[in-house]
Amino acid sequence: MKAYTVTAAMLAALLVSGTGRAAERASAKVTEQPEESAAMASSHNELQSLDEAKKQPHGRLEGIVLDFLTVMDRVVNKDKQPAITTEDWEPLGDLVDRENFRRVGNYGVRNDWQSYAELLTQWANHAWWKGYILRMREVPSGDGKSGLVYLETEERSNSSHPVKEDGDYSTLASIAVYEINPDGKISSLRVYDQRPL
Questions:
Q1: pLDDT tens column, 147-164
Q2: What residues have CB less than 8 Å from 55, skipping those under 6 apart?
Q3: What residues contact residue 119 under an 8 Å CB cut-off, 6+ apart?
Q4: In angstroms, what CA-CA distances link 89 with 15, 101, 104, 121?
């Protein structure tokens, strides 16, 4: 899959003219870029299941996020009896910097690792969930600094049974920003979502 770069001048020309010659000139200047990673170039706005995304080439940091989502998918979709516990999230905890982890989620709720594991436990005991990836982008770390992964998803959930492909689910569009420290641990997660009122 090929990626393309559009410059600010090209966007300005499109916005000013809307259509016509300026738009033609701008589109003619689009420059081809190297193939991008993954999972994640869905420039055609195609949703990928988690399994499909994992089969695509991806960067090291994107791989950490895919591992995080894999654990989340496995735990939240377990049978609800016996009840899911915070111990079920231990494999997720292995992917995060437990001491420094911070999450800002829906409605601005802030969590450290322990309170996030408790929140996930409460949620997982009353829901089934599937995440579908639209786009994922990695900004690698360097010089002892953290890297970032931007993840755009469609989240599907159902409170009475596993999510099925027949549309019997609620949807939520979200963008999550994962900060991953130089040791490869997730130190921060910020979630932004759109949901029906």
A1: 999 999 999 999 999 998
A2: none
A3: 105, 109, 111
A4: 47, 14, 18, 8
Distances from the Cα of 51 to the Cαs of 69, 70, 133, 173, in angstroms?
10, 9, 10, 19
Enter the tokens of residue 56. 């695509």
As a whole number of angstroms, the distance between CA 110 and CA 9 comes to: 39
Cβ 33 vs Cβ 7: under 8 Å: no
57-78: pLDDT as tens digits: 999 999 999 999 999 999 999 9
What sign results for the dihedral spanned by CA atoms 111, 114, 115, 118?
A: positive
For every residue of 2-22, DSSP letters joined together read: -EEE--HHHHHHHHHHSSSHH
> What residue type is 163 in one-letter code?
V
Q: Which residue has the higher pLDDT, 37 or 65?
A: 65
**What is the set of domains in the chain, with CATH numbers?**
3-33 (no CATH), 48-194 (3.10.450.50)
Cβ pair 129, 153 in contact under 8 A? no
Question: Which residue is associated with the tokens 């079920």?
Answer: 88
* CB 78 within 8 Å of CB 121: no
Calculate ∠ Cα 182-185-189, nearest 5°.
110
Fill in the amino acid letter for 167.
G
Enter the pTM of the model: 0.77
